[in-house]
Design a protein that fits this description.
Four copies of one chain form a homotetramer. Chain A is an alpha+beta fold. The first copy, chain A, contains 13 helices and seven strands.
């Protein structure tokens, strides 16, 4: 992996222009406040990285600052499980937008314990449960993968964040027990929750995550040249990101940004330009739908300035 | 307590006529099958008892046969907690009909963790949680009360039923965690569930339950002459039974029977004629809404034959 | 019919005490404001009447002042149709509480065009549609009935109110077309709406309505001694009033008042003490669920002071 | 416009292979049966066309057979209104997937009369209403546009289809009145419905519609070289098609096909490969979500065989 920061290269001027515009924009939303570690971040923080297919990374702002990945990791867990069990996964989780706030139990009940998609909490619990059954340690599997793809062996769980999530974990416990009542959870709920919260707690930087996402721009090929997903599966994961990756704002994100993307309440968003590059942007201030305000704005500017939308 | 079975007394001929009619009616619904102890009961079983205010009891069929009380006990837990904390209870649980199947999470989410009424599972969990906080042993408190009112010291928990409920308890665990996420549960969820399932497991006969319900026909006065509820509170419990006591069929039950009543999936139903008498009927076959088929039919006949509806 | 106001009779002192208490209570809610005729009423107006089975009427305050009956008339339309078609009506409208705000379309869609009960707008449209098919003039039939029972030949439609309702009638037009799409409306929607809005527009006083409701306390017998409903049907209408008569507050009304009752957004509420008497109270200020604030409070006091609850 | 069918050209062999595969596949779903003109079509019919940016069209099967366009026209009405009023449109209709069946009123009520997106019926009614206000004849404007872009002056309304839609139009009348009750419809409902049903009734072939859609692959440029939409607006319409274009199956369509697309109950589907080409496929047999079974399968094969997905 070659980290390049020379400003003469392709994406660097675009990133700097975006950072400059974002820096002059007041109003950044509010950091998630349900756990102390997230609430403590400065909403004015901003970093952005672009990774080309060959591992070249461009960055601006706090692009090497580690932050809490949270739901961004749901993409990688999905890919890891899909690589193992293939289409059988889709009998346990759907791939339709939720049309409701991200914690909603309504549709889960209406659809008999099958979550709408892998990126709402209920769906991510199912995917983690299945990867746990297949590996014995879903969180460990995820961490190993992220370290390998990012080339950063220091990535790790944040024990304090994981403990905080557990302390406020009644909603996810309810989701897991609810799906278990429909027979759609295999492992004991406390074990599953431990695995789930540890995944959410992983800390990584924009550079790390842009690189870790590259396999989706390379149609399934990992950093070491081996194949994780078939070309068709990589396309499918991108499609699910586009239609379901930003909570209840997927339509708006597609409309403004026009790229497959996945956000987390830590303020990070990853995005994919298939066949071309990947992006990760981070800024802790969230809008009312849980997406980074400056993050979405930066990606919007990126696709407008470069024309690199999928549409 | 004087148990009277001489057929010359008031209610005996009515009960015998009803039993005769029910006995000639084919089609009795199906016993609840989610736990073995309920599934094993014969759907053709039938018993019915009427208790007058002075403790005189009339009965027919298997009126002295113990059965699993299940949700019927929710009435007594409500009364015991209401006696202790009064109107403050209503800040934690509503008193409106649910308008949805009895396990629904939809309204619970919509109403921010405050269950619609004390007789849906979520509401009963809240009431148990509050009585547990106030007594240290809600299930024990309930059993003591039922023994005293029925005059039957042999009433007890059915450990096998309680264990079965726990084994299939994911739905109730989901409800409890969900309400805990809104701050509406005080005790640890596993402890609460243990108390809740033990209450549901109590075994009693029609005679026992008709007597135990009498305080609601006596406007709040217990068997020993002491007052459990104020006259106004007794009226309120009766009102909640009428509007919410039979799952999603409260309107239909009021229409057909016209009495405050509470059913359980064990096939029992208690009913109150305020100022006059109480009834308990039992037959394990349920309709699709969870109420005893023969039980509702028998109460329908009783109010038609005697004119003892509240309307 | 003998109108009695001598204060020595039974109910007069109770009514005067209630009026006195209500008069000293600040905060009366707000009149309905969606049409001018309702918005113009003084929220401090208050009247209350009690009619005994023999037609004796007691009253206090503005008990002879005509007001807009609105949804109160749904009870009479139901009775008139039920008298004609009997139980077949219940294939087209349910009798369960709605569990949702009174204009909700959600359950109507979920339940395939069969409204939950005859007192939500959708259900009342169905009942009017059926009475219209059977009589050719549902509104005229209703007016004739109300004049006969109240003994007041001057009762009439308020053309201005009917015209206002039509002007703001999009919501009811939506309901009617929606049910028509399920085949549950027989007549052309504009004709049905005209009939429906005319019924709502009838103006009557507390004295008129208490008398007109008496057939429900007399178990189905009209003022002239003829039978409108069977004893069983009268009981059924009372049961539907108790479980569904006050919009989304039926449980609370049963809990506080403990009588079958039906409210309207004009501020009127009728109530029935089966076998004993009927009541009508009027005060235009509404709570957020559409029921008269002073009206509910007055009925609450009445049942507390007299002990005349059904529970 | 040059219609080319020489099999040596790029897309022709792919289309023929697809047609061959589809022809050997049993099970084609069922035509829409709510109006006679749709029910009468043979579910085994199949046609497919690809239009390159320069107007070259390739086709296979019944690609020149006219069929009922139905909801496919919603894309063009959206573009025509967006061209006129710009972003102000989005105050009256959202751009999020519906997450519910295509006629659902639930979310419409929850979101106060603002439909989720322009492609559910409620949203299309709003867009037609707005274009009607701006042009005086939305249906005529649409027909003129389709004739110009397809180069086919014979495109026209099917009066029989429009009359049938009107006869079964209660659901759409309900939607329109419901939104009018929130102030989100400007024109009289009967006039709006007439315009709406005429748009749905337009008959066109795969060749016509592939050509008419080309402006979305040309980033907003019409067949005559003039600009209808800005580049950004064209991207936005494509994004809305991808997330909302196939009723409740948008996630699945994105997953399988990976292209912006819009289906109609006449069995047609249009799709866009931005910057490259457009497609239209037609086969009347529908799946349970209202999309052409053979149509989705053919597009799935097309993107798999050519690699022309946006992901």
């Amino acid at each position: 992996m070659a980290i390049m920061t020379t400003s003469s290269l392709t994406f660097q001027p675009v990133l700097e222009r975006i950072a400059d515009e974002i820096g002059r924009t007041p109003g950044r939303g509010r950091p998630a406040d349900y756990i102390p570690a997230l609430a403590a971040r400065d909403p004015r923080s901003f970093g952005m990285a672009v990774a080309e297919l060959d591992g070249t990374v461009y960055g601006v702002g706090e692009w090497r600052e580690p932050f809490s990945t949270q739901s961004v990791t749901k993409v990688f867990t999905l890919a890891l499980d899909l690589a193992r069990e293939g289409d059988a996964l889709w009998e346990h989780v759907g791939r339709e937008p939720s049309g409701n706030p991200f914690n909603s139990l309504v549709q889960l009940e209406y659809e008999h314990g099958i979550p709408r998609n892998p990126f709402i909490n209920a769906g991510a619990l199912v995917v983690t449960d299945r990867l746990l059954t297949r590996t014995g340690d879903a969180a460990g599997e995820l961490l190993t993968f992220l370290r390998a793809e990012s080339g950063n062996p220091e990535l790790s769980f944040d024990q304090e964040v994981a403990a905080s999530e557990t302390a406020y974990g009644d909603r996810n416990a309810a989701l897991a027990h609810f799906m278990a009542s429909y027979g759609n959870i295999d492992n004991p709920v406390p074990l599953l929750l431990d695995q789930y919260f540890r995944q959410c707690s992983i800390t990584a930087s924009c550079a790390d995550l842009a690189l870790a996402t590259s396999f989706l721009a390379r149609h399934g090929i990992r950093a070491d040249g081996t194949r994780l997903l078939t070309r068709s599966q990589a396309k499918q994961v991108n499609a699910v990101m586009l239609t379901c990756g930003t909570y209840d704002a997927a339509g708006d994100f597609a409309y403004r940004v026009g790229l497959p993307g996945k956000s987390g309440v830590g303020g990070g968003i990853i995005a994919v330009v298939p066949g071309r590059c990947t992006l990760c942007v981070w800024s802790p201030g969230l809008d009312e739908r849980g997406n980074s305000v400056a993050g979405v704005a930066a990606l919007d500017r990126f696709t407008t300035l470069t024309g690199l939308s999928v549409f």
